Model the fold of this input.
Amino acid sequence: MSPTAPKVLTERRGRAWLVTINRPAVRNCVDGETAELLFEAVAAFRDDDGLDALVLTGAGDLAFCSGADLKAVATLTSRPGARESGPMGITRLTDVGKPTIAAVNGYCTAGGLELACWCDVRIVGVNAQFGVLNRRWGVPLVDGGTQRLPRIVGLGNALYLIETGALIDAQHAQRIGLAQEVVPAGQALARGLEIAAALSNYPQTAIRRDRQAAIEGLSLAIDDGLALEARIHRDTASEPEMFEWLRRYAAGECPPPLRPPDAP
Done:
């Protein structure tokens, strides 16, 4: 990577927005400039009606993201807006409103694990490794790790990772629900983009409202969650989009189902 190469790359792939942390020489760790560029990339995705899904990845094969740049920690907390968006740039953003996918190869540790947990799903290469390695240096989880990780893998699994700092492989991550798919090394990005393209073929109103209901209802009692679901979908059935897609279904037009990958 040249000294002037952007630390975060963005690219439109159809109706998907590809965001790449571009610091492979330092395992894609995040400093203040990188965090700000991540924030700008996610804000652009959120505000663009022509984009349906975001894929977050890291440059190279060695790491998705190894966490905060410990040689430039001050730049993370001093960045304007860090308190609102999170030191790593995006982890306190909860208003994106559209599907997000982490495509993980190699190390996904510390704040990098928190970035991956910010995404809705994680597609990982068989070479991926996950861990709260910052435990060894007394660096806390302040980018959502204590909140999102237990919601994803359950409290026992989360506390095991958080307290021990253990480094686990892709198969272990899939067993506990941290990884949704494990693919051959180097194929996580291609599979993430394939999933993003499939999501773009679906009606967007229902998928976005289902996503909202699932996330917002997670901490609610079942009765309150059902009421939330009904409120969010109060007008979905009357949307012109739904009528159009039902017409297409009746005419024999239907997007192909997403197939799971072959085992790596």
Observations:
- The chain has a mean pLDDT of 94.
